[in-house]
Each structure stands twice: as C-alpha cells, then as structure tokens.
Amino acid sequence: MGTDLTIRISDEDRAAAARALDVAVADGRLSWTEHAERSETVWAARTRGDLVPVLADLGPELAAGPIGRPTGTPQRIEVTLSKVIRTPDTTRPIEAFAKFGAVFLDLTALRPGERVELSASSFCGKVVLHVGHDTQVIDDGDVWLGKRKVLGTPPGPGGPVVHVTGRSSLGHFKVFRGSWR
Question: Is 61 helix (H, G, I), strand (E, B) or coil?
C-alpha cells in the first residue's frame, strides 16, 4: 500500500506513534533518554513523513505504526443467527460483529510488513481469526463474561501485524495460526 508522507496526521496518529515508542522502551530497544527525545518529535510532528525517522529503526511491527495503518471506510461483516466465512480486504479497517452467530476471517495470505486493523466484537456469538504462522496478533479488545484467546506460539518480528480491538460480551474471540481450509 503506497503511503503519501505529506498527509497531515491527527492526534490519534501521534498517540499511536507514542505507544510504539512506549513498547520500544519496554522491550529494551530504546533508552529512556532516546524515548524522551523521540516523544518530543512525535508530539511535534505534522505529517506522516515527520514520523518516519522516529519509528523506522524499531522493527516493522512498530515502525508501521500510524504510517502503515489501513485507512478508509471500514469493511463491515455482521451476522445474526448465522455463520459467515470471509477473506476480507486488508487495505482498509475491518469491523466484524457476531450476534448469536459466527464470523470466520481468513487472513492467512498477509505479507510480511503488512498491518491490519480489526475490530472483533460479539454478543452471544464468536469471531474466529485465522492467520499465518509468522503473523503477530495484538489483542487490545476487552471481555465481559466471554473469552478472548490467541492460540499458537507468538512469532518473532518481521511478519505481518494484526491489531485487534472490540468487545466480547457473552461471546468469544479466538485466533488460530496456519492454514485451515
């Protein structure tokens, strides 16, 4: 996906870049001094291009940050009392919602460095995600009387990244690694 580095960024983009720096310092990739210097640059940034040098050496899973994040109108996949299996368009955010049903998403074809934003929510239903063995899944979703689980061994850096949000209410969100068809 081509990225126009002259596009102005939002406060949300700056916050996402700051979170990437927080992860980098927690992982030991940056010292606290470097973190402070880069944080100043992030909060002063005006365009996507301003963020590139700040994040570029942190590895593909962090460097993509707000720069490589899919944009545009989200692709919505909703089911009620049904089951659907989809291979969604990964160039824009994905919103999956299952109510008394199931949504199965196939993201096994993601390429290294690709980043996908997924909102996976359910009410008395389930969302099941299938990814490749090299895909890093970051689940920032929450649960209310349900379950969220990422199965399989977490991969090393360099593969695709799927950032997941959403809420499982009396429902489930599960991630499986490897082919499934």
Answer: helix
Query: Could you tell me the two tokens for 52?
Result: 């590139």
Phi first, then psi: give them for residue 14, nearest 5 degrees: -65, -40
CB 113 within 8 A of CB 70: no
Phi, psi of 178 (to 5 degrees): 95, 170
Give the DSSP letter of residue 68: S
Contact indicator for 165, 141 with CB cutoff of 8 Å: yes
pLDDT digits (tens, 9 = 90+) for 94-152: 999 999 999 999 999 988 778 889 999 999 999 999 999 888 898 989 999 999 998 87
Task: Tell me how far apart the alpha carbons of residues 114 and 130 are, in angstroms, rounded to a whole number.
Answer: 15
Task: Report the alpha-carbon distance of residue 99 to residue 16 in Å, rounded.
Answer: 30
Which CA distances in Å does 5 have to 2, 11, 13, 40, 166?
9, 16, 13, 19, 29
Rg (CA), the chain: 17
